[in-house]
Fold:
Amino acid sequence: MERRLVVSSSPHLKSPDDIQSIMSDVLIALFPVALMAVFLFGYRALITMIVATFFAMATEAVILRKWDLFGDGSAAVTGLLLAMTLPPAPPWWVVAIGSIVAIAIGKHIYGGLGNNIFNPALVGRAVLVVSWGSYVAGDVWLKPVPFGFTADLLTRASPLINTKTSLLDLFIGTVPGSLGETSALALIIGAIWLFYRGHIDWRIPGGFIGIVFILGLFDGGFTTGVYHVLAGGVLLGALFMATDMVTSPVTPIGKLIFGVGCGLVTMVIRLFGGLPEGVTFGILLMNGLTPLIDNLTLPKKFGEVKSNA
Amino acid sequence: MSERTFVGGIHPSYFKESTAGMPIAPAPSPSQVVIPLHQNIGAPCEATVQVGDEVKVGQKIGEPQGFVSAPIHASVSGKVVKIGPYNHPLGSPVEAVFIENDGKDTPFEGMKPQKPLEELTPEEIINISKEAGLVGLGGATFPTHVKLSPPPEIAIDTVIINGAECEPFLTADHALMLERADDIVYGLKGFMKALGATKGIIGVEDNKPDAIASMEKAIAEGGNGYDIEVHGLHTKYPQGAEKMLIKATTGREVPPGALPMAVNVVNQNTGTAVALAEAIKTGKTLYERVVTITGPGIKNPANLNVRNGTLIKDIIEQCGGMTDDARKLILGGPMMGLAQPTDDVPAIKGTSGILILTAEFVKDFPIAPCIKCGKCVDVCPMNLVPNFIGSASEKGNMDLAEKYGAMDCFECGCCTYTCPARRPLVQWIRIAKGEITARRRKQ
Ligand code: SF4
Ligand code: SF4
Structure:
């Protein structure tokens, strides 16, 4: 019997995880967050998410000339994450520009997936804040109306500026704010899925949230600490943005340093800076330091240094 | 108390169900065996027989050409019909002795019981293991008598028997621990006596509770005075890798580039322990071993006692043949075993498994860019950065690969297994190791 045997070098087994399955897991993790956004802000939130995701995927498809829209799933993740950082209902073209910028400039200018230095979704958001600020910051917040499918009551302030909000509201998410930022509950549920699947490690969110809480504690006591964690973009940033694999360190110690750094910059901006929110720039700054952090925190080889009893 | 595992590693599916607990069956004796004259790490052997000679089972047919080498013995009785190169599991053809089996299984008279262990001196034990052709049967095939002869300035205090069997699919060691536990303990005592070691440890992954119980019973019955313990270890690949096993059982870390003896430990495989017990008790030389024949591509998986030099295709045939969708033949386990271009290759001392994988395991995936997920860093038991070493090697930057620790990689394959971008990390690292070694040799 003649049969052709395949020869390749070991290992001959492969874990079932691939990039697409990881990206799908991130989308699954974002599902409770998306659901909450629609629950609170109505159909317009849904439109914002669809527009952002579609334009991200389409931009990627055009650049790669691959007409399988979902592809490895990374563009969809970027688009949806961008939507999560935006107010519930900016004009659709603002959202589209954000997605196009995120994919084209945030990702492909550097050579595409794996090569980008900065989190693409946050690059998209940063460009929108700088260039079309009036649509994504300022008087743009919708008042959340649970089950109010057509919620369109404008509210003046995002919750970071309004310290009278109850912590319970902040936890559930019944406060004005960006689509994916308001509900700590939904974010935590999503993150549990990512932990369970082994796609994020405690170090980045732990360092990030930990330092925000501690600095908040020093600033105004326990409640202020909790408040700083729950309000604004800290949870979304710590659980979903800073943990972006491509733009965060690969070494265990590096991850912790990175998380702490993100939290530190965020709090410096919040407490002393001119901007109301520092998460975006905190993460982007640390993204830039990631290669350096990796190189400075290479793990000790097995058996090195440690004395042998 | 020592730790029972190491940091890193992976949890692949173990696929051991099809042969776990299967008794060790004798493989039918083939009509002809092809016994390669190089079956160990180190120097090859030279034939001590000529074409036309009659040989008996267990008779020496190959004489070592160096200290780091082990003699080779006939696995059937019959006539030497040819001596010449033949396919070898490690790649290029090697001189081999072809013996036509007369089917009589006449044992060689030279195989005689030795003195009981109590009366043997360390030198005698070392000599017995050398004459019996013992090598590490886990797959590394390092000559046993060399491991039993550390430099005089090094005192070995602990001998560890590797019963982890962390490679998926393989169950040969498991079967030995169930059926030959007393011989494993006897062999371990022999190793301890040869080395003057005071402690014996048998490390078994905790997914084999029956093996742990069996070993504990054998120690209670036959340990007489020797300090021997069974350690249940976390079930995790590569728990049976030398350095990881030492870490898990003794807490000691072998420094990069060093051998276990640097931390006063010697590792031996379960099969090698059984072989030493047999060599002492009956004088049997190492001419057969237990092999797991398994995988979705074989019709009747089994644990077989296979004679040295049996062609893999004969064994496969005895196991019902390959299934139609069989695509890959691997000697050893799926993580570190060697894929073979043909089944016309003899089983040797280092053949722990014959694994046949089907089409679903042999898919080709495009290589994606590194998404820097860090999963390879997390799983590397040597604490290396496989992503950086791999990329450096991919780009031909061997200096950088070396700087990141390429030479400390022992090719367990965890990084490649785990990489979601399907990057052939260990394969790139192997290339780097090859080039770095070649360059060092030149200098
Ligand atoms: S780098 Fe080497 S030692 Fe580390 S996981 Fe990869 S193959 Fe194993
Ligand atoms: S596992 Fe693969 S994708 Fe992840 S860091 Fe390592 S090489 Fe890169």
Notes: Residues 375-442 of chain B form one domain. The longest helix of chain B spans residues 425-442.
